[in-house]
Amino acid sequence: MQIRSTTAQDLDVFVRTFHTALGRFPETPDANGGGLWWSAIEMDRGVVAETAGRTVGTAISYPFELTLPGAVLAPAAGITAVGVLPTHRRQGVLTAMMRYQLGALRESGEFLSVLLATEGGIYGRFGYGLATFTHRMTVQRAHSAFRTQVQAGAIEVLLRSEATEVLEEIYDRYRRTQPGALSRPHRWWALGAGMPPVARAPRFVAVHRDAHGVPDGYATYVLDGGTLTIDETIAADDAVFAALARFALDHDLVTEVVFKHVPTAHPLRLMLADFNAGPTSGDMDWLWVRLLDVPRALTARGWLTDGEIVLDVDDPFLGEHHRYLLTVADGKAECVETTRAPDLSLDVRDLGSIYLGGTAPSTLVRAGHVQAHGSTAKADALFRAERPPHCLHWF
Length: 395
Fold this sequence. Notes:
7-stranded mixed beta sheet, Aminopeptidase, alpha+beta, 3 domains, Nonspecific Lipid-transfer Protein, Chain A
């Protein structure tokens, strides 16, 4: 078996192999030659596995920016299109590709990698830790009264086909301050590469504007059989989110509103006069984070609390084990190797889980994944973020 990097000439076989691995057929481009989820892939960032002259496995990465705690924008490789033909599974193909890919990312200077997992049990063994979660909320319109009155700005309804520019503008401002958010490069919007609202699928767009007429939020939605489904709601603050939610809940011909991808800690349910009127469902993992260079990653993010902690980090997939002294002062961190006794002993995947502040170290201690040598209060205080991380971007 040979693992190699891809070139532009590999595009057709790459796409065909990946779709075959999923048991699917590639979609047809729209009238403008776009609208395909893979339109934005860059073939110089791909990996294929070959055996007997045939491509049997694929993987590739996107160059994203990931927003870290402290509103720090850091480069992150977004892994996608990972697949192995059904005839070649459980033969080490995926492991070989992952090892090659992580090595290539390191050599190119990357220190963070992220992905969305089709199956939650696959990528932990490669060092990826679950860092953000999402769920959906369904509200019956008949029981949708809010406890307090919503102060809304002006809301305008546009078609998705005429709203690309304002969608891109609002999302880009939002993702720069939201921990866990990923960039959506301009070419994604231009090509319609992804899921709605990036994709060109027909949608209505409710755009909220502030008192000065500046767009500061949107909700993209479709109405079908009395159910209004919102793909995503982007808002400058909770008041804008509430205004967009109220708009959807007051829509005529609607019996229920489904809010997809609501942050697990969002106050929307508490805004309702009847808490039970907004049940949640579909709790699921979303963004997985992999630290490729622990000191660089830890010193890149912002910190809210001063202090120091010793982390004993095991990386079994890459065969590495290091002990680090993390010292934080005035929101900045230094990270150096040390021989001091550890405060926490953990796998690199667990470090990925706590990195964005979405999971407290003490939670992983209670789950039996992390070993604490004393109290976890210091670790919990250090790793918390200004608000829970959340990722909406599909890739």
